[in-house]
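Holo prediction — flavin-adenine dinucleotide.
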Amino acid sequence: MSGNGRTIYIAGAGIAGMTLALALAKFGATVVVLERNKQVQDVGAGLQISPNARHILNRLGLDKGLTTRAFEPDGIDIYPYGAKHPLVTMQLGRAMTDLFGAPYAVMHRADLADLLHRACKRFANIDMLFGVRAYDVVSHARGISVTVDEADGKSRSARAFAFIGADGVNSRTRTDVLMGPASTYSGMVAWRITLEQSALEGVVAPDRTSVLFGPGFHAVCYPLPYRKQFNLVLFTKMSREQALGGAAPKTPQLPWAAAPSPRFKALLAAAGDNWGFWPCSTVETDDWYEGGVGLIGDAAHAMLPFQAQGAVMAIEDAAILAPLLMTETGPEGALRRYVSLRRERVAKVKKLSASNGFAFHMEWPLTLARDAVIASQGTRGHLKRLAWLYGYDAAPDPATPPPRTVRSGAN
Ligand SMILES: Cc1cc2nc3c(=O)[nH]c(=O)nc-3n(C[C@H](O)[C@H](O)[C@H](O)COP(=O)(O)OP(=O)(O)OC[C@H]3O[C@@H](n4cnc5c(N)ncnc54)[C@H](O)[C@@H]3O)c2cc1C
């Protein structure tokens, strides 16, 4: 599709920013991505990508790369605290593809970032600026003015049709440009580590995801065969002062170390003390845009990661916003429509993520009722319960953007 002379600036070359850049470039936009880091993210840990995001990534040309680098677990083993065997194995694998038309996969976050970056580099109309020191955005009647302090100390000023903040949970676009709120610390932190594949032999299934519940904490692990690694994340409570005040311990503190869970103990023994640490914060605001400045991904709606949907929602945001930015008469109309299409769904996913945390961290005897419900849903209950989530297609036909007339070439 040919472009209409529109230039879109995006802050952040994360999953949201690069997906949006790609989707816009396919519609012919001129895209400039501003990233404060010197390169795309090459650290991090695992990421689960459900069919609702995979459809979008496939259409952006990433299917082959994803098939190589991602892994499709057979199912999710659910372990109540101290359980010797899984309470249930929730089906993924073929069941997901058969029902929702795309795989449910896990992969290393840096591999997805790399695939997106390689795809962006193939478009002459995407300009990625790394090491950006600062940017200013001014919205006025005839569009947006952007000034960027680049890595080499030079400054560039330009006019743009829209400016999209995809700059994550602590988004400057949200707090400094739109004057929105700071993120809210949840009281939970994520301890993340990748281990050699062999390190968890006999502890968890090598071809499935494992979720281990505990009183006030839980762990998630899954294989990353492309890297011959296992991804392990442990979520624990931590005070705000410790988590955000630089006083966090170097390894998870285990008040429950003596409690009866050999599997937890084995996981921790395998992990050693090389953990990465990430405070889990959310973003609570309804103001996702003003004029031609908008927010997507974590910048707009960071959520607790307990349904593994934060990045997936960012990908959906990008798929919906891109055609609107290219077809609506003005940026404000595009952003208004984007928000109206996204708000309810994202709120529902956010609520689900929070309520999962509540269920995962229950203490006895509430766990008895929880486990009875999980067992009663069996191996396929989640496929029906979450069909609204996984069966959603944000942009069914990318060749046909939403039916609005394209008028003047804006800037
Ligand atoms: C432990 C854990 C596990 C998770 N697991 C999953 C999962 O399995 N599936 C899933 O879908 N989601 C998962 N999530 C959520 C997911 O990581 C986020 O929702 C996702 O990364 C958001 O992407 P984003 O592009 O919006 O933000 P980010 O990934 O944070 O990217 C923001 C980018 O903006 C850049 N930036 C920031 N400030 C500036 C600035 N001022 N100027 C220029 N650039 C800037 C950053 O450097 C970064 O590159 C998980 C989260 C956690 C903590």
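READOUT: Residues 7-183+282-390 form a domain with the FAD/NAD(P)-binding domain fold (CATH 3.50.50.60).
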